[in-house]
Amino acid sequence: MSTANSRLILGVWRIADWQMHPSQVADLVEGCLDMGMNTFDLADIYAGYRCEALFGEALASRPALKSRIKLISKCGIALVTPNRPQHRVKHYNTSSAHIVASAENSLAQMGVEQLEMLLIHRPDPLMDADEIAEAFFQLKQAGKVAQFGVSNFLPHQLELLQSRLDEPLAANQVEVSLLHTDTLFDGTLDQCQRLRIKPQAWSPLGGGKLSAEPAETPLGQVLARLGAELGVSREQLAIAWLLRHPAGIQPVLGSGKLDRLQQLVAAQEIMLDRQQWFELLEAAMGRPMP
């Protein structure tokens, strides 16, 4: 595999909605690599437990891609779905046996030998940190996962798990965007800075809502004015705003369209100054800073 994770990550949770032939998905992966984006985010449950198999079909159509990409997957959520008839109720499962089995299934579905990163998808009220630590140790020793992290964990939940691990967690994937700024103030990003954990931002464009933000709202007005001043789109501004944060946020992009991804990747060249950043934050919150 290549040596470094890209700053921007392609999330393929909607791969079933893209309605692409495996070769077209492989073309998309090639295009991402050409843009310097080598990291791809998946989870066992996405697309009704079909996401990893669909992505695996793309990799099988072009096996040379496997050595050029970094794969992130997640586990720990159990959905009620025809693909899992044994599940009577949606629940979380972070038992050691489930984590190991899920990771091994992810590898088999995608036809690869190692995940770059495995994340615990959500904090489990029945989480036994020692069990998770044992699963991580087994997977690391077997060479099946290079790094481990969490998703949607609050600082105290991450602290508990980290206390049982010999190696530092590598990531916390959380919701953060101009439409979801709570993460800036609840200690999550502060903890990431303190522990040098990379925060990954899911839904960095508010699940598409940012594109539809009315022009007359405070946020719509600031996006329009700064966009005109800098010659960029509102989506590019939103990504640049995340990239400006000192925690080193890694946005997880969700588009299956190469031209749109090219536009978002170009946001890495936009350098917002401190006042521009705060203009966007104040407009997003709908109130001035205290």
Automatic annotation (TrEMBL):
Top-rank taxon: Bacteria
Organism: Chitinimonas prasina
Domain NADP-dependent oxidoreductase span(s) in chain numbering: 7-280
Name recorded for this polypeptide: Oxidoreductase
